[in-house]
Design brief:
alpha+beta; 3 domains; 12 helices; five-stranded antiparallel beta sheet; Beta-Lactamase
């Protein structure tokens, strides 16, 4: 249990943010410490080099070589000159060009006299590199005494008074002070860094908690959202940051879920109502036949009426199944380059007989050879539904006109009638399932439909990435305008179903 809690704790976002912050802080501190230490070491080393160069320049003024004898010329009463000369004598070596020792300080003897072969090679290299006005080549190296203390040695060639013979001279200075400073600096950082890391980690833990507070609030709010409580929304901080964007994204998702749940509930209600009506009628017909029918004709009539209601029930089930398959993506479009002019002409010709029976004049006004990338079966179903509704709701003597023309980047199909029209209050709902327009300003149709035809029309237009617009005036007529993309033209910017200036509900 404890191991599981530890694993859960270490996998938490707050812990990972804090660990990342602490790791970054540690790398930063160690990097800065290493950089400072390297810079300090270089500065201290450069200072020692500068001091030895200054002493080497002063050495030529105080040291005189006469006939192979080493003499120091300075005023012993002058404390500055005395200090400088005595400082140079602490780590000092002088030999002739062959490496014979002419004088060495005790400290240098502890370091060890340079080998004669090395001295001769240094003299030859320095003399060979000399040019008029130059001081000869300088040699630098680090030597260690018996206790391991490092010394920086600066060596080179000087000449006697007549500039006749070269002599090898080396002076040095202890680096123990530099190492002590670096060691102290290192220990200070070793002591500071752990404390800084602890304080930085605590600060990171606090800051991570502050940063995750809005996320936890979003999580708590989302946890309270359920199918029966979809009206709840996550509040935003109005800061316009990523957390506000996350909250808005969740709210939009909840809006879609709420809309879907409402559609499901409405669909369940509508289906229950639509199925209950024919089932009730069938049951009534059969009960009447069972209890009152006495002759074969009465039984036959009851069975005939029941079969009609069963057929209506089958139509509803088939329509719902087809619409469900379409919306779930199971009904795939079989698109091809389709000549809409031929499709419209054929359908108008097929509907001439029912139009004449309803005493309605059906005409077509279309351009020649208008093409679109479309599914022929679904386009025919779409136009058929619109023509059927137009003829059904147009009184005798009225007109129904079908139009087809090609516009820049799109194809326009129109179905216009002079029927009873649709009141503006019904326009936002005409594409909903089972929705049927009734009431003032409309005339009852000879045959009541299922209320699914325009739902199919809406889905077909959406599946073809087009849009549909409805413009209707009660007592004047209705006009459906469908815009489909022309072949090779995308239609991502098209909007679905806009009645007049108001966008319709999407299927």
């Amino acid at each position: 249990m404890a191991r599981r809690n530890l694993r859960r704790f270490t996998r938490g976002l707050r812990f990972r943010l804090t660990a990342s912050y602490a790791l970054f802080f540690a790398v930063l501190l160690f990097g800065v410490a290493a950089l400072f230490r390297e810079r300090l070491s270089y500065t201290l080393d450069q200072q020692v080099h500068d001091v030895l160069e200054q002493e080497w320049a002063a050495l030529k003024g105080y040291l005189k070589i006469e006939r192979g004898q080493v003499n120091w010329y300075y005023d012993p009463e002058d404390p500055d000159e005395s200090f400088i000369v005595e400082r140079m004598k602490q780590v000092f070596l002088m030999t002739d060009a062959q490496g014979h020792n002419l004088g060495a300080s005790t400290q240098y003897q502890v370091l060890g006299i340079d080998p004669a072969e090395q001295i001769r090679a240094a003299v030859r290299e320095s003399v060979a590199s000399e040019s008029p006005g130059s001081a000869g080549k300088a040699f630098w190296r680090v030597r260690y005494n018996a206790s391991g203390t490092p010394f920086l040695i600066r060596s080179g060639v000087v000449y006697d008074e007549g500039h006749h013979a070269p002599y090898y001279v080396a002076i040095g200075r202890s680096l123990a002070g530099n190492e002590a400073v670096l060691r102290g600096f290192t220990w200070i950082y070793v002591g500071i860094i752990p404390g800084a890391l602890v304080l930085g980690s605590l600060l990171g833990w606090f800051m991570a908690g502050r940063a995750l507070t809005p996320v936890l609030a979003i999580a708590r709010t989302a946890q309270n959202i359920s199918g029966s409580n979809l009206s709840l929304r996550i509040p935003t901080r109005q800061s316009g940051d990523e957390l506000d964007y996350l909250a808005l994204t969740f709210n939009r998702m909840i809006d879609r879920l709420e809309s879907s749940f409402q559609q499901i509930r409405q669909f369940s209600t509508d289906v229950s109502h639509e199925l209950r009506t024919p089932i009730t009628a069938i049951r009534g017909q059969l009960e009447v036949a069972l209890f009152t029918a006495q002759t074969p004709e009465q039984y036959r009539e009851a069975m005939f009426n029941a079969l009609q209601d069963i057929e209506r029930l089958s139509q509803i089930v088939r329509a719902l199944l087809l619409l469900s398959q379409a919306e779930s993506g199971q009904l795939a479009l079989q698109k091809s380059r389709l000549n809409l002019s031929g499709v419209v002409a054929d359908l108008v010709e097929q509907f001439q007989i029912p139009a004449e029976a309803a005493h309605v004049r059906l005409t077509a006004h279309q351009a020649r050879d208008v093409f679109a990338e479309a599914d022929r079966i679904q386009i025919e179903r779409m136009i058929t539904n619109l023509l059927s509704n137009a003829i059904k709701f147009t009184p005798p003597g009225g007109d129904v006109r079908v139009g087809l023309r090609e516009l820049p980047g799109r194809v326009e199909i129109t179905v216009q009638d002079t029927g009873c029209g649709i009141p503006s209050a019904h326009l936002p709902h005409i594409f909903d399932r089972f929705y049927r327009v009734t009431g003032e300003g409309t005339a009852p149709a000879p045959e009541q439909g299922l209320g699914l035809g325009l739902s199919f029309v809406s889905w077909i237009v959406k599946a073809h990435r087009g849009k549909i617009e409805v413009d209707s005036t009660p007592g004047v007529g209705t006009r459906f305008t469908i815009l489909l993309p022309a072949p090779g033209i995308g239609s991502d910017t098209m909007e679905l179903a806009q009645p007049a200036t108001t966008q319709m509900n999407e299927l």
